[in-house]
Amino acid sequence: MRRATRLEAENRLLSVESRPTLIAESAAMQPVLNLIARIGPSDANVLITGEHGTGKEVVARTLHAMSGRSNRPMVTVNAGGLSSGLFESELFGHVKGAFTDARTDRIGRFEIADSGTLFLDEIANVPLNLQSKLLRVLETGEFERVGSSHTRRVNVRVLAATNVDVNAEVAAGRFREDLLFRLNTIEIRLPSLRDRGEDIELLANHFLLVYTDRYRKGISGFDAGAMQALREHPWPGNVRELDHAIERAVLLSSGPMIRGVDLGLRATSSLGGALRLEEMSLEEVEKHLIQRMLARHGGNVSKAAEALGLSRSALYRRLQKFGLE
User: Fold this and answer.
1) How far lies 229's CA from each of 119, 152, 220, 237, in Å?
2) Burial 207-246 (b: 16+ CB within 10 A, else e)
3) Are the CB atoms for 89 and 146 separated by under 8 Å?
4) What is the pLDDT of residues 23-66, one digit of tens each?
5) Distance of CA 117 to the CA centre of its chain
6) What mean pLDDT is predicted for residues 294-309?
7) 3-class secondary structure, 24
8) In a 10 Å sphere around its CB, with 0-12 CB exposed, 13-18 middle and 19+ buried, how is residue 59 labelled?
9) Contact of 150 with 144, CB cutoff 8 Å
10) In the chain, how many H helices and how many E strands?
């Protein structure tokens, strides 16, 4: 990218107040920054793809903050986490008496996001039989609350995200091609943290400032061993894993500098030769195996869960437990 073009993109990203923190200087992230700067002010639907923890929600919040809808709400929904029974009610609302537990009318997420932005995370995991309901509102802006025949209209910009290869899901018959067309007017593909190594130190120092301020710790930086460990770690959980590692290190550090041992990254061979399972706790072994499976399957939670013999929900609980979510 020409320097002038890069500076224009960065200046546009920085020009909006209260923007989420999108930190990137690496070559791998420059096309992403440029694309965000160009499409952020538009109303285009955007599909944000990338491995687990690469910052898809941060990109969504940045796009919303750059848009003319920034003074309206951005509503977030884990679309893949909704059961069939809750899907319509959660997204479209319901009226009193629509089903057994419907004791009052309820406004759905589309109505709450009216004139604003709706962020649908894990969009590829929406069951096939429910995708037509989502497609209708994307095509027409119209829907009915569950139990009502009154058609309502909304004006919503939809941002969606997934760590799954949606084109492969379409080819396998698990995702509607027409829905994909509606969602990805523009696609933003986020690189993994291991592919943007120049950003690791920048991100680590950002998180260090955040957590030393939050926890009132007088820590000035990272010693050489800690910085080497950060650079060599494979980061299967990407930026989110780095965030949690720095927070933990700030809490555990007893000195003026973060040391390698404070980072809790013993489960990688980069921190001192061969992995010695007998020196690890059961939780560290479990975390290590999860990290390996995520890395092996490119951050795809469903495939990693299958390889580990876990359900997706069970793996998500462990990701949350170990700060890899």
Assistant:
1) 34, 54, 17, 15
2) bbeebbeeeebebeebeebbbebbeebbbbbbbbbbbbbb
3) yes
4) 999 999 999 999 999 999 999 999 999 999 999 999 999 999 99
5) 16
6) 80
7) coil
8) buried
9) yes
10) 14, 11
CA distances from 232 to 40, 51, 55, 166, 252 (A): 34, 19, 20, 31, 21
- pLDDT tens, residue by residue, 105-134: 989 999 999 999 999 999 998 989 889 999
Q: Which two tokens stand for residue 47?
A: 């599909």
What is the rounded CA–CA span in Å between residue 257 and residue 107?
50
Angle at 62 between CA 15 and CA 89, to 5 degrees: 145
Q: How far is the C-alpha of 103 from the C-alpha of 94, rounded, in Å?
A: 10
For residue 230 the two structure tokens come to 């950060």
Distance CA 55, CA 189 (A): 11
Cα-based distances in Å from 130 to 75, 121, 123, 126, 172: 20, 15, 11, 7, 17
Alpha-carbon distance values, 243 to 61, 81, 121, 129, 271 (Å): 18, 24, 20, 37, 19
Residue type, 90: E
pTM score, whole prediction: 0.78
Please tell me the distance from the alpha carbon of residue 155 to that of residue 239, in angstroms, as a whole number: 32
Q: What one-letter code names the amino acid at 281?
A: S
